[in-house]
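Complex 214.
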Amino acid sequence: MNPTSNTLEARGAYFEQLYRDAADPWLVRQRWYEARKRALLLACLPQQHYRHAYEPGCGNGELTLALARRCERVLAADLSPQALLLAQQRLDAAGPAGHVTLARHQLPQDWPRTGKSADKFDLIVISEIAYYLSAEELALVAEQAVASLAPGGTIALCHWRAPFAQRILSTVRVHDAFQHAPGLHCLVRHEESDFLLGVWSNDARSVAQKEGFA
Ligand SMILES: C[S@@+](CC[C@H](N)C(=O)[O-])C[C@H]1O[C@@H](n2cnc3c(N)ncnc32)[C@H](O)[C@@H]1O
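Predicted structure with S-adenosylmethionine bound:
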C-alpha cells in the first residue's frame, strides 16, 4: 500500500493481494511472538465468558478461533474477501463453529448497527488494524465502539508499536483515542517494546470487585 495514494480502494486492494500471495502474511500461526501476544490478550479479558463479540479486521481467523472458545457468538469481519475465506477454512478445520459469523466490513463505514441493548457487543477486539485508519476514521471507530458496547462490556486493543510504511497513525495515538473516550475506564495497560495492549470497559470495577471479594 502506498501511503500517499491511501484511498479506501487502494487499501482494500493491498490487503486482498497480501492474502492472495500468502495465507498467513504476518505468520500469526507460526511465530511464538504472535501466539504469546494472543495468549496475553485473552488473559487480559476481564470476563471468563462473553455473550457476543465483534472482531473487525479478523484477518485469517487465528484470534477469531480463540475468541470463539470464550464467546457464545462472534461476529468476525474483514475488508478482504480472501482473508474471510482463509478465516472460514481455519474455523472449519478446528471443528463446528456455527456461533461464528464472518462478514465483509470495511471500517468505519460498515461498523454494525446495534440498536437494542440485546444486540450490543459485550466484547469488541481491535487487533493490529486501527493504525491503518485515518484520524477521522479512528475517531469514528472509537465513537462507534463505545456506542455499541453493552453495559459492563469490554473493549480490547492490541497493536505493534514500531513505525512501518503502511501505518497511518501511531499506536500511541490509536490507544489514546480509547484512553480518552468518554465513558470508558482503563482496566489493563500492558506495554512492551514491541506492542501495546489495552483493555477498557464502561464498568470501572476490577475483576475482584465484580466477583465480590474486593
Ligand atoms: C495485520 S492484520 C491483523 C489480523 C488480526 N486482527 C490479528 O491481530 O492477527 C490487519 C487486518 O485488518 C484488515 N483491515 C485493514 N483495514 C481495515 C478496515 N478499514 N476495515 C476492515 N478491515 C481492515 C486487513 O484486511 C487485515 O486482515
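The mean pLDDT is 94.
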